Every structure is written in C-alpha cells, then in structure tokens.
Amino acid sequence: MFPSRHFTGIETLTTEELLSVLKLAAEYRAVLEQEDKNLDDLRTSTVANLFFENSTRTRFSFELAERRLGATVINFNNESSSTAKGETVLDTIKNLEVMKIDIVVIRHTLSGICNLLSRSVSASIINAGEGTHEHPTQALLDVLSLQQHFHDLNGLSVGIIGDILHSRVARSLIFALNLLGAHVHLIGPKTLLPDSFTRFGAKIHYQLDPILPELDATVSLRIQMERMESGYLPSLIEFHKAYGIDERRISRMKSHAVIMHPGPVNRGVELSHYAVDCGKSIILDQVTNGVAVRMAVLKMIHEFRKSAR
Q1: Do 15-135+290-308 and 136-286 show the same overall fold?
Q2: Top-level CATH class of 136-286?
C-alpha cells in the first residue's frame, strides 16, 4: 500500500513499497492475458484524467487501466475547458471534487505541480508526468519489464541514453533502479548530461561505445526536436552516430541484453529501424506493462482511501 493517498513520484518510496506495487502489477499483467480482462476493483471510484500536455501511450494506458478496473472515467479536454479561460488547475480540481471525483490523474508541463496540488485537495493525485521532474508510472513499467526478463535487478547494469538533463523519465527510472540495486549508467553529450547527476548515484559516460558491452539493458530517451533549436545538439545525424542503437552496436551488446524506449521513438535517431523491431527490443512489452502498473497504482490508491475513511 502507498504511504499516502497520492502517488507523485518514485523518489519518496521505499524499496518495500516499490516491490509491493510491482508485485500487484505482475498479477494484473497476468489478468491482461485472460479472455475476460475486466474487473470491478474500482467500481465505486470516479477518476478524472487531466492531461495538459500531449500524450498517446500514457493517456490511453491510464484510461484503459481505469476501465479494466471498473471505474467511472472522465476525460478532460484542455482546449475546451475553463482553464483556457483563465481558471487555475487547482480551481478546476476543486470543482471536480464537489462532483465527487475520487482520483485525479494529471499530466502537466510544470515541474512540482503534483506535490503542490496534493497539499491542497482531498482527491487523490496521480502523477502522469510533470515538467522535467518525474514520470513515476513510466519508471514502474520499465522496471516491471526488466523484472520479467531478468527476474532480479540487483547488480544489473542499465544504461540510460540521451537527453538526461530534461528527462522526467530518466529521473524516475534512476530512483527506481537504485532502490532495486541496479547499477545506473547515464550516457549522452555533455550539453545534455550535467555532472550533477552523480548525486543520484549514477555513473556518467559521454561516449556510448566503451560502456555498451557491459550493459544488460539500454533505455534510449526520445530526443525532443526543440533541443536542436536551443543548441544542445549539433545535428540529429551526429547524435545517431554517437549514441544511436543500430545493428552494428547491437552486435557488440551482451547476448541477453535488451533494448528499451519510453516512446515515441524517433526512428533513425535514438534507434534504427532494425533496433526497434529486432529480437532484443522489449518496447512493446513496456507498452502492455504500462496498463498493468497503472492498474496497480490505481488499486493501491483506492485501497488507501478506503482504509483512511
């Protein structure tokens, strides 16, 4: 069970709490393989999805998880909402609360907004990705995918490649991997990988090729095209040459190593077409596991709320 009625990040979880979520997620993952995938675990809960930022996988994954658990689901449209007229996010949620909303799933461009809201509302807040701070359910699905492949993550070497500086995915994943005893290697150009990340207990590498044969898993991060305009990268071609996973680099990886990506993939930039579709890629497993971990988070929040009544 979560230690509070909110789930705003991995950083505040203990190893035991993280493992308990993963255990439940694994059980739900098995349910998703059944012919009848629909449950009534959240039949008495109403969930509002507030996405102030574009999303495909995360939004659909949360909505499907909610419906699989039998919740009443409300989807928020930012363009046609009162926030477009100047209403604050807090006021939007307070108005939803009096309509008896129980859980709010929020994705926003502002770092720290989930923690801020959690101190001001009675509904439960679930972080679906905020600014450059955290994306905790992405980290959960990543480590669940690694667990399915390797079982025990203790001592596993995982390389996170690309734009570490701006990545909420990287931050959450670093926290989760540290809790499970994995060795985290951050790999990217100096402009996107500051030395300060060593404070998270990760090793920093500015070249991919020397460390690649030592890695059990690679997690390539999406390069955001606006980084090109900001001068962080010379060109996408140069980035792929230095950090892209392709057939040549795959041949130098461990035989059991896996390739991961949070999506969406820029084919030919972070990963070649071959890398996306080859046998080492578990990217589609990550997507399926996203539904399972979000079911687990929703269920644990629901149970906490019941116990606190």
Answers
A1: yes
A2: alpha beta
